[in-house]
Structures are given as structure tokens and as C-alpha cells.
Amino acid sequence: MSAAAEIKPRARILNVTEAEYRADPCTVPSLSQSIAHTLITRSPLHAWAEHPRLGNVVKRSEREPTKAQIQGTVMHALLLGKGSESVRVIDEKEYRTDVAKAKKKAAIAAGCTPILADEYEEAVAAVDVIRMRLAEHGCVFEGGQAEVAIEWEEDGPEGPVLCRGRLDYLIVEPKRAKILDPKKITSADENTCMRHADDYGHHIQRAAYVSAVEKLHPHLTGRVDFEFPFMEFEAPYAVVPRPCDGMSRWVGEQQWRRAYTVWQQCLNANVWPSYPVVPLTVSPWTAKAEEELAEREQHS
User: Taking the domains of the chain in order of start, what are their residue ranges?
Assistant: First the structure.
């Protein structure tokens, strides 16, 4: 057997449904970018609580999705060209009648996203405009695969760390690869996108998913691009595809490395600490305001 044949693959495609992916189908509890973000921004205890194979005490809301949430889910599926099979168009004008309510309830019970016929037609028209605007920026969802679930290993201090991710859209070419991760946002201006990235851990997501693709296709190491197409889902449907700059890439890589290192230590020891115990202090701006007030009082 050749040396190349003996090398164990560092990554593989997971052929699972969305529900199976969210439940974590890996052999041991795996680290996702969302759990990593919780671990970094809150604590290992909060990450444990969110993980479906560990605490699993933080439940998703069981309330019916809002109209905006349904719109986002449907438009996301239409844009990627995958997931439309789980969208159920309700051929009614509104949900006031018992028949319409029953159709909606049945769709939700079947795991589908219900949407009224008129609203579905609006979503289709809106996606056509968004797709056109993205194409003007050279951002097209063609030639790749949507909703690609990957399991891969990172090199932790105590050995391999099993991770998983579900990439919205992956394009693999002979010499390059590209990940597209569209984001719905109220305003695609620079500052709002920056805050959105901080709030939801987009920097960690980029670092994790690029690492996953590089493990899956080692010959493309250093040649995996990542772009966040930020999209407004209301007219005039402004879009801005945003790659990460050097600082955001560095921050994401640092945070991802720290996350899987701490994750491995906690998982191996089965110890999940909460916030560190430190003395209570005041914010820098409160301290500065008090210092300025004290100085004025001395000179009064």
C-alpha cells in the first residue's frame, strides 16, 4: 500500500438532511461555527447548553414563524436553488378561514414552510431582482452545490477536534474554490454589515468553513475565497457582496483556533466553566467621566 493511500482523510461530505445535521450526526459531539461563536462570546457553559448532543437545554422557539421569517426562508431557498421542496404554497388569499388555517397547520406539521400564493409570487419576483443585482457584482450561484454539509478535523493541542459545517453554496474549480454565504439584513450599508458580522460571528464562520474546504480539497489550500452577499429583502433590494479584509480574516482565525482548543479541553474533561470570576469594575467611559468631574471640583 502506498503512503498516499494510508493517509486518513481529514474531511468528508455528510449526506444528511438538515434536521439530521442540526442534531449532530458525527461520532462524537462536534464543534460548529455557531457553537464556537457562543463559546467565544459567552462561555463554554453556554456552548454546552446549546449543543444538541450535550446540554440541549436552549430550545428554539416553538412559536409559529413570523411573516418576515417565512419570507426569508423562502427567498433563501429560491436563491440557492435548494430547499424549495420544503416550501408549501397555500392557495388562499389569507389565513382567516378555517380551511386556510388547516392548510397552514398541516404544512408546519409536515416540516414545511407555508406561504400564501400571492406572497410566494412576490418572493419569486424579489429573488429575480436580487439575483440580477448580485450578478452585476459578479456574484452568481452557478456551477456549485448548495447546502453542503462537511465534517472535518482541526489539530487541537490534545489531538484531532471533530467539527462540522453546512455551507450555503460551494463552488470548486480545478485551481480555486469559493464559498458564498448570503445574509439577509435590514440595511446593507457598511456599518450595519460590520455590526451584523460581530453579532453573529461571521469572522469565525469564514475561518471554519475555509478550513473545512481546505481539509476536503488539500490541493486548494490557500486558494479558497469566501464572500458574504448581504441582501435587503425589501424594495429596492440593495445587495453588497462583501469579502473579509485582512483584519477580519485574522480575527476569525484567532477566534476559531481558540474556540476549538477550549472546546477540546472542555469536552475531554467534561468540565464546562461559566464566566470567569473577576472583580467588578466600571467602564472606561464611566471612570473617565468621574475623573473629569473630580478634577473640575478640585479647581472650583
Answer: 12-269
CATH 3.10.580.10 fits 12-269, yes or no: no
Model confidence at 92, pLDDT cuts 50, 70, 90, reads: confident
Q: Provide the percentage of residues in the chain whose pLDDT is more than 70.
A: 95
Q: What is the pLDDT of residues 107-142, one digit of tens each?
A: 888 888 899 999 999 999 999 999 999 999 999 999
Where is average pLDDT lowest: 3-17, 41-55, 107-121, 173-187?
3-17
Grid cell listed for 165 = 459545517
Confidence (pTM): 0.87
